[in-house]
Amino acid sequence: MAAEADKQKSFFSSPHQENKDTILRVEGISKRFPGVVALDNISLEFEKGTVHALLGENGAGKSTFVKILYGIYTPDEGEIIVEGRRVTIASPMDAINLGIIMVSQSPVIIDRLTVAENIVLGIRRYGYYTLVGKVREKIVEVSKKVGVKIDPDTEVWRLSYTQKQLVEIVRALLLGAKILLLDEAITYLPLEEKKKFYKFIREYADLGGTVVLITHKIPEAMDVADKITVLRRGKLVGTVSVKEATMDQIRTMMFGERSGEITYEKLPPGNPTNPILEIKDLWVRGDFGGLAVQGASLTVRKGEVVGIAGVAGNGQKELLQAVMRLRPIEKGKIIYDGVDVTNKTTHYMRMNGVGYIPDLPAKYGVSIENNILENLGVLPNFVSETINWSKLKALSFKLIKEFEIKTPSPETPVKFLSGGNIMKVLVSRELTTATKLLIAYNPTRGLDEATAIKVRRIIKDRVIKQGIGALIASEDLDEVFQISDTIVVMNSGKIVGVFPADKAKREEIEHLMVM
Ligand SMILES: Nc1ncnc2c1ncn2[C@@H]1O[C@H](COP(=O)(O)OP(=O)(O)OP(=O)(O)O)[C@@H](O)[C@H]1O
Q1: What is the secondary structure of 331-395 as a DSSP string?
Q2: Where's the ABC transporter domain (predicted)?
């Protein structure tokens, strides 16, 4: 028993002894915001040459922790020790001078400058390289490794999201990053590119770099990381070595009793009746003029979830945007609820019961400067000259409870919520809007595993009980299989397969996605 207890203790307790490979150590870090203890007495150390993942449910304190290391927040208490020296990190410049660099999910680059100019700009300020030629070489070298082509002389606005993230990572390397803080920097990358980035991160660590990686995907963390630290409600649960840990142990550390709710079993089937959405021979252009959707036809019925499986960048996003009337249609027709909406507006769609969860929620889905109430104020039944604030407030309390949105109050500006809680605000609003149809792109991205499953259950429940239709594109095949009644596969802008979900075979879908 004693031996077992010791084993448990070493498994769950964090190391406190300084060891020679320690590059960064924090001791007793606490951070409070009004109404929230974001971090409570955290002591932790990071070793040279390791990938160290930080996991925890939404609002656990992960971002706050790395923002402290990057000088965006100052801790209320505690100490930071870098390479054996106590340091004060009062700004990102202090962090950069110590070799600590953060890349987050929103690229911080200037659209009108070229890739090389952006990078030189960042470096010059801190007195490092100034030679554009060197920068060019490095961009080519790193982009080759990561397998994402990127021209140093392209203006940044022309780049895809993946390429922009790559620019950030190249900049971090050129700034001499010894410790790379990746705050969900890879979360929004397409799966294939994510894998290449992970390989690259591994190489960086093998060459002596240290990576602090925030992700919600336990399998990804277990694949790439050496160590995993779990935070829960601002407290340190423990650090484990990936070699010794199992997925279930990590889930238990992250969610406690809630880990029992995590299951990937298929949700109960819908009850499809009449068509609510018919897409007929649709052709849509992408951002750079090419035909992103090429002759797609599909039907979504009331009481049915149609899941679109596909590698990102195969036209799913443009298809959904066209349905929402956010993108011009070259050719084809969209019939919604019996009406030809090909020439209607987004406003028409929203006012007539269509909810929409876009890609990059914090950018396109909510206004982060406004509070939760104001963000809910764009719901169709509140869009009038005078908003009924008391009714809106009552609704906000209901949604905060149902979706377990972690916030001090409905009047809290959305930018003060954690990433996952921002996503919950969006999903709760759009599911309220969707009285007839939900259109969603990766509806659970950025949500922790337990919450993601809960959101899928809520969506399926609406489909079953209220008979709404749902068209959901997701890069997460587990999600597609769990929620869909019908699975559609998109590849190169075309629909290359349609399967009743109970007959769909994963290998066949995967093959169609990449063939
Ligand atoms: N600037 C701020 N003002 C007020 N509260 C904040 C601020 N930044 C973070 N918080 C709160 O601190 C808590 C921890 O947030 P944090 O963003 O660190 O969580 P997280 O673990 O990164 O979550 P997620 O997985 O959802 O991104 C949350 O309750 C959040 O609302």
Answers
A1: EEEEEETTEE-TT--HHHHHHTTEEEE-SSHHHHT--TTSBHHHHHTTSGGG-SSS--HHHHHHH
A2: 24-258, 277-515
